[in-house]
């Protein structure tokens, strides 16, 4: 393992002014997104859509540091035979790959999930590296509800995240460690804070036990935020203040960067929250976005599967990327 190189890539992923485009929706998830805009989820449509994003010159060269791909996408070529992954490299961004294989029900823990995909991961990482991937992603999902999460769910998911991260570093790939605490319930921001604190603490404990080099990873957490169905929605300032406090208590300064998921926040909220956190600096790590929905909802709508809308889709994507790029420096204005 070359830790200097892993650290260089991790730092480039969270460089101020740029963030990560999470375009790694599984075939099931992208079908849901396409259904919403009335587009059939064929392999060609999925490719054309992602080609539109990766050819967005302004967004990709100025505001996007890296792109997380799904397995299908990393092997796809555009009509002229160029691999999609080459379009990303040519724009100056770093290609990455989602390597978990989704979630399964966790035995003995009703309603809870464990992320799977460790079998043969070392072999898969080798092939992804050869194809150009320099970072990877693994997402664990923790739900908040009555009596959950259990310590069992937190513990097995943290263990798997650390196993994945160690395998990535051994394969010279920077792991994005993503323990997502969902914002779907009616819990308040303080409950989210408390659960996320337990999850992050356990995750970093496992990373240490399994000898993962913190200098060669990126953390992708949720923000401390009110559940979507909570009657009291915390303000932008409260989300920013509590999230920064939480991360300072749990994330060692050796970690080069933190890149948030958007998790169901509106486009503008996701931008406003990140921006407000930068008003609370200085921060010990790079702090930016790794958004899926908050970067893609607008371009998906503008594109709607029509070739004549490609330019409109790219304009919408570039706008969101620029807004989040500004927010990653605390320079966004509503
Ligand atoms: P969202 O920003 O849509 O939550 O997606 C980010 C992601 O990659 C989740 O794993």
Automatic annotation (TrEMBL):
InterPro entries in the cross-refs: Aldolase_TIM, FBA_I
Catalytic activity of the protein: beta-D-fructose 1,6-bisphosphate = D-glyceraldehyde 3-phosphate + dihydroxyacetone phosphate
This enzyme's EC code(s): 4.1.2.13
Protein's GO biological process: glycolytic process
Biochemical pathway: Carbohydrate degradation; glycolysis; D-glyceraldehyde 3-phosphate and glycerone phosphate from D-glucose: step 4/4
Keyword tags: Glycolysis, Lyase
Regions crossing the membrane: none
GO molecular function list: fructose-bisphosphate aldolase activity
Similarity-based family: Belongs to the class I fructose-bisphosphate aldolase family.
PANTHER family found in the cross-reference section: FRUCTOSE-BISPHOSPHATE ALDOLASE
Name assigned to this protein: Probable fructose-bisphosphate aldolase class 1
Taxon lineage: Bacteria, Pseudomonadati, Pseudomonadota, Alphaproteobacteria, Hyphomicrobiales
């Amino acid at each position: 393992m070359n830790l200097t190189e892993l650290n260089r890539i991790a730092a480039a992923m969270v460089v101020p002014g740029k963030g990560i485009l999470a375009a790694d929706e599984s075939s099931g998830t992208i079908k849901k997104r396409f259904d919403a805009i009335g587009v059939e989820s064929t392999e060609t449509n999925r490719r054309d859509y992602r080609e539109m994003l990766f050819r967005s010159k302004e967004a990709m060269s100025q505001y996007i540091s890296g792109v997380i791909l799904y397995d299908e996408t990393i092997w796809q070529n555009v009509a002229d035979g160029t691999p999609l992954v080459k379009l990303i490299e040519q724009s100056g961004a770093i290609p990455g790959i989602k390597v978990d294989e989704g979630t399964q029900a966790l035995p003995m823990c009703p309603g809870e999930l464990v992320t799977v995909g460790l079998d043969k991961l070392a072999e898969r990482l080798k092939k992804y590296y050869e194809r150009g991937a320099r970072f990877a992603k693994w997402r664990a999902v923790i739900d908040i509800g009555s009596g959950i999460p259990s310590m069992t769910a937190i513990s097995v998911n943290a263990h798997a995240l650390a196993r994945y991260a160690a395998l990535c570093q051994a394969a010279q790939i920077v792991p994005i460690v993503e323990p997502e605490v969902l914002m779907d319930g009616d819990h308040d921001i303080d409950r989210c804070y408390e659960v996320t604190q337990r999850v992050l603490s356990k995750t970093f404990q496992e990373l240490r036990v399994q000898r993962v080099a913190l200098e060669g990873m990126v953390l992708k957490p949720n923000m401390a935020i009110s559940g979507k169905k909570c009657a009291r929605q915390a303000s932008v300032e409260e989300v920013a203040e509590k999230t920064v406090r939480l991360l300072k208590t749990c994330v060692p300064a050796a970690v080069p960067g933190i890149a948030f998921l958007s998790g169901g926040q509106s486009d503008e909220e996701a931008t406003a929250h990140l921006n407000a956190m930068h008003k609370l600096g200085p921060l010990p790590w790079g702090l930016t976005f790794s958004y899926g929905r908050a970067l893609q909802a607008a371009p998906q709508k503008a594109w709607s599967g029509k070739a004549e809308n490609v330019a409109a889709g790219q304009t919408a994507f570039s706008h969101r990327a620029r807004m989040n790029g500004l927010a990653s420096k605390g320079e966004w204005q509503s």
